[in-house]
Structure formats: structure tokens, C-alpha cells
Amino acid sequence: MKRKVLSALLIAAMTAATVGCGGGQQAADTQAPAETEAPADDAAPADDTAADDAAPADNAASGELITVGYAQVGAESDWRTANTESFKSTFTEENGYKLIFDDAQQKQENQIKAIRSFIQQEVDYIVVAPVVETGWETVLEEAKEAGIPVILSDRMMDVSDDTLYEAWVGGNFVKEGETCGDWLAKYLEEQGRGEEEINMVTIQGTIGASAQVGRTEGMANKLAEHSNWKMLEMQSGEFTQAKGQEVMESFLKSYDDIDVVICENDNEAFGAIDAIKAAGKTCGPDGDIIVVSFDSVKAAFESMIAGDLNATFECNPLHGPRVAEIIQKLEAGETVDKIQYVDEAYFDTSMDLETILAERAY
Ligand code: AHR
Fold first, then answer.
1. Category of 323 on φ-ψ map: left (φ > 0), alpha (ψ -120 to 50) or beta
2. What's the pLDDT tens digit per position in 68-77?
3. What are the distances in angstroms from CA 330 to CA 49, 50, 89, 170, 344?
């Protein structure tokens, strides 16, 4: 590590700056849910209010910046754009950081190259939002050998040795999928369709990404509880709008009796909605096809208000302040929780969406 020792003064200042801040989970909890939101297990939708708490204002004053290399997945979705913005606005020189940002364009090999380049540049911390879960051992061992702590954000890595990373902060993807399944069961019941045979298709995310693996698993758990639900087909839309549209077009050609499309992110849903309309069908609460998705970005609220999307299950992207808080604790020699889930809610067309949207951070 280039910057091994911080002055006692700096450590004291940073410790003071983090007093009152818990882990990522607690930071998320500081946000009260809007009254109109339906709670997912009473979860408050987290936003970036933790940013100010986590910002180590005194790092910059010491003249010694903490260098952070962030290996980002890409720019495939509105969620990802918000996530990038969260890191860029948190890891600023004013806050005492130098951020080296790398966009891997959804390719694991690019992320591995970026991590190796961060090691060569002797950064102080490496943060990775891994494209997929597997295949990371070798490069993480290289980082460990170089003495550079690694923090995982958003998606998980499946590694046999969990000392290869310091901490992970992100959403509970299985729970998101299960919340979606529970919502659907309740919605169908309310529509008087609880016993009807329901045909579904899923536009999955990038295969092997935690967000895909978890959401597919969560929904599968709920499918197992409903013998009248039938999953016709699942295909990857790679978390993009263009691919979501393409996959939906092919589903509509193969099946003329789709009741529900589960899109593993909002952008795929926007593409699916375009495909549904182009095929002369309708969607949303008054339409032929129920459309649900994950993330809860602003455009998803607009789509629900327009009557196209039925519901969106939150995945909070504002991880910059949470990762900064982890770094501050490590700098102060404190231990950090290894796994830090953020709280997430859901939103549907029964809510006062205009009011929620007006206050939405992403
Ligand atoms: O890993 C989080 C997922 O990645 C988000 O749901 C999606 O929009 C992004 O591409």
C-alpha cells in the first residue's frame, strides 16, 4: 500500500466523523419510508442521506488522499448510472479521496484487468461490483498479496476463502425475488385470479450475476408455492432495455397466452413494454399482460404512472457512502460487518406514485 500510515490526528478526526454511523444497513435505516409506500418487511427504501455522515471531510485537509479503485460493471441500466454517480459524488478530493474509476462494459475479463491495474498503481482500496459471481480467486489473491483491501459492492463473489475481501454491501436479491412473488400472489388474488392458471415468462439479468441468480431463485421459491403458476420460458435480457425488448419480442412470437412477464430490472421492462405494444397487446393494471420488474428507478415510476408497469421491487444503488463508511472504519482500525444488506421496499400502482417520485433520489 502506498499510504500505509495516517497521522493520529487524521484517525481521530475520521473516527469522530463516523460516530453515529452504523454499517450500511444502519445507514439505510436512517431514511423513513414515505407514508404511501407499501413496506417490504417494514423496510425503509434507503437513499443517499448517509452520504454526508460518511464523508471524511478531514482526509483532504491532511493532504493525503485515500486512493480507491472502483471496478464498475458497466453502464447497462439507469440503476448502474445512479450507482456510478453515487461513487463519483462520494469519493471526491473534497472528501479526501482519489477515485480511479473503471467501466468494464459488462465483461469480467475487463474487471480483472482493472483490478490488476489498480494493484500496479498501488491504490489503497479496491472496490468491485462483480459482473458475475465466480472466477475471482486468482485476482483477489493477487490483491491480498499486495496488501490491498478489497470491498465488494452490489453483486457478490462466490469465493471459497472469504478473507479475500473485507466486506460486501448490497441488496438481498433472493428476498427481492420472493417479495415480487408474494406481491404477485396477492395481486392475482385481489383480481379474482388466485386459482387461475397463470402463464409467466422471465427476462433474466446477466446470467451468473448475483442480481440474476438471487431474483430467479426468489421467484422460483414462490413458484413452488403456486401449482397454478407456470413458467413458460426464461431468457437473459442482460439487464438492458434493447435486449429486454428483443427477448420479449421472441416470447410473444412463441406464446400467445402470456399473463405475466417478470423483468429482472426496470430497463428490461421498458424494452418489454415496447415489444408488447408493438405486438398490438396491452400491459399494466388495465392491460393483457402484468409487467413487474426490479430496481425502482425514477423511470419505473413514470412507467407505472403511465399505466404500463404494474410494480417494481427496489434495489438500492446508492452504495458510495456505505463503502466510504466501511473504508473509514478500516482506516480507524475498527472491524466491519462482513455482509451488509441494505433495506429495500417495493412500489405499485395502488400508491401515491407522484408524491414518492418527487422525493426519489434515483
Ligand atoms: O446488480 C444490480 C443490477 O445490476 C440492477 O438490478 C441492474 O439494473 C443492474 O444492471
1. alpha
2. 999 999 999 9
3. 21, 18, 21, 18, 26
Q: What is the pLDDT of residues 51-104, one digit of tens each?
A: 444 545 456 556 799 999 999 999 999 999 999 999 999 999 999 999 999 999
| Gyration radius of the chain's alpha carbons | 21
Q: Does residue 79 line the site of ligand 1, with CB under 6 A?
A: yes
| CA distance to 108, 182, 208, 241, 286, per residue, from 132 (Å) | 7, 27, 5, 19, 37
Q: pTM higher than 0.70 for the full model?
A: yes
What cell does 30 get? 436512517
77 alpha carbon – ligand 1 mean position (Å): 7
Among 263, 295, 312, which residue has the most ligand 1 atoms within 8 Å of its CB, making it the best to mutate? 295
What's the pLDDT tens digit per position in 179-230?
999 999 999 999 999 999 999 999 999 999 999 999 999 999 999 999 999 9
| Residues 124, 160: Cα–Cα separation, whole Å | 24
Is 268 touching ligand 1 by the criterion CB < 6 Å?
Answer: no
Q: How far is the CA of 355 from the centre of ligand 1 (A)?
A: 25
Residue 173 Cβ contacting ligand 1 at under 6 Å: no
